[in-house]
Amino acid sequence: MAFRINSLILRKSVRFLKVDSVVVPLENASSTSLRTGWVARRPRTNYEQGIRFTSACFITSDAFLSRLVKNSKAAETDDCLYQYPNSLPHDLAEQISLLVKEPDQPENAMVLKVAILGAPNSGKSTLSNSLLGRKVFPVSKKVHTTRTRALGVLTENNTQIILLDTPGFTTVSKVKRHQLEKSLLEDPWNSVKEADLVVVMVDVSDKWACNKLDLEVLKCLTLYPDVPAVLVLNKVDLLKNKSRLLEITADLSCGVVNGQKLQVKRVIKPPWAERRTDREARLSGPEDGNEQSVEVASEGGEVQQVLSREKLRTLKTQQGWAQFKDVFMLSAVDGEDVEALKRYLVLAAKPGSWHYHSDVLTDQTPEEVCYNAVREKLLEYMPKEVPYTVTQSIDLWHDRENGELDIAVKLYVKKDSHMKMVIGQAGLMVARIAREAGQDLSNVFLREVKLRLSVKLKN
């Protein structure tokens, strides 16, 4: 069966005006060809110029594609299908009560638990936020913004999608060297164990890493080959040469998607490029070269060796994973791009009982969301190690009579120089952080939030 691009997905939200198709033959394929391309879309306003890239994807099943198109047409003719995203209760007791509340599932309930994996800064939290419609997970350009696994719940009609937003993969040696939390090492692995579907994120704008899956990702996929996986090429809007997407797809999928072999004519590379690739493969993971196997913490806290040294050596020379079910190309910050992936997840759900009430947005507490909102701004504006050393405590969480939420957070820093940087000249930096974090909290709690920050030197 041939690959197809779901160019008919979501006609209502994605306006396709012209598609430049690239026909690629498949081995043992029927008369149907793979159709993919970069879609030109007119600007929405007179102030925008030029064209922009719209998402594409490889859907390998004709039956699934037919359901996807049918679902999109139904959404086009029925405006009532749109549901506003849930908000997060600002009261801890209310949030806990909601989490333990009996799910209000319909008779034909569908459910899907999705683990979102990838290297640091591949866009996992950004995609999760876009799918949920609320910014409940912190996002920054620095590594390890997400420190522990967090859960998001997307409920549409009779379907509940549970998103497991995980930290970027790291290694045992890095955790020990930088004294990182153990959750950074364990949570991605544990999330895959309970997932029905894995979404592997790759940043295609990173020219040094976009043609090879992260070694830790490959280890995880190898350990759990029975969990279906989907490849998502993210940040395509930052990739100037869109024609490279086919080559990247072929590399990351080993030229195979859902058992179908994809033939892509590659650009001829100079000999030095091939030598560099071989050298990188031999030197891959130098800090883990002495490790005999991969260690994964089980539910009981025990550590079990699961991959042999020979298998690790093979994975280090392996570019991609040949068992991806489908491939998506998108920008996680573009709502229209993400909508296609959302429809895919909804249709991939299986009959089953809901895990949460339909009003649940995340399993995080309001205080945790507050901490993350402040930490995100610290990561964004503070240099080097400064944001990683700042700790927080909430001094005040109060509902005013006018409905405004008053929050006071104290920031503890280790050095006097760090304090000066956090406060900024005339207090402008700490005021900016408080203002922007407060706005993010207002959008999550759906109420006005007055956030006040103070900085104190930690003894």
Overall description:
This protein is of the alpha/beta class and 459 residues long. The chain has 2 domains: 4-351, P-loop containing nucleotide triphosphate hydrolases (Rossmann fold); 366-457, K homology (KH) domain (GMP Synthetase, Chain A, domain 3). It has helices spanning 62-77, 92-100, 124-132, 172-178, 183-193, 215-223, 244-252, 271-283, 309-316, 335-348, 366-381, 386-389, 416-423, 428-445; strands at residues 4-5, 18-24, 34-40, 56-59, 110-118, 150-156, 159-165, 197-203, 229-234, 256-257, 260-261, 294-297, 303-307, 324-329, 350-351, 391-399, 405-413, 449-457. The strands form 5 sheets. Strands 1, 4, 5, 6, 7, 8, 9, 14 and 15 form a 9-stranded mixed beta sheet that branches. Strands 16-17-18 form a 3-stranded mixed beta sheet. A hairpin with a 2-residue loop joins strand 10 (256-257) and strand 11. The protein is globular. Mean pLDDT is 77; it is low at 1-54, 272-277, 279-294 and 297-305. It is found in: Mitochondrion inner membrane; Mitochondrion matrix. Residues 165-168 are annotated as: G3.
Helices and strands, with pairings:
Blueprint (H helix, E strand, L loop, with lengths): L3 E2 L12 E7 L9 E7 L15 E4 L2 H16 L14 H9 L9 E9 L5 H9 L17 E7 L2 E7 L6 H7 L4 H11 L3 E7 L11 H9 L5 E6 L9 H9 L3 E2 L2 E2 L9 H13 L10 E4 L5 E5 L1 H8 L7 E6 L5 H14 L1 E2 L14 H16 L4 H4 L1 E9 L5 E9 L2 H8 L4 H18 L3 E9 L2
Parallel strand pairs: 5-7, 5-8, 8-9, 9-14, 17-18
Antiparallel strand pairs: 1-4, 2-3, 4-14, 5-15, 6-7, 10-11, 12-13, 16-17
Organism: Umbra pygmaea (Eastern mudminnow)
GO cellular component, one term: mitochondrial inner membrane
Membrane topology: Peripheral membrane protein
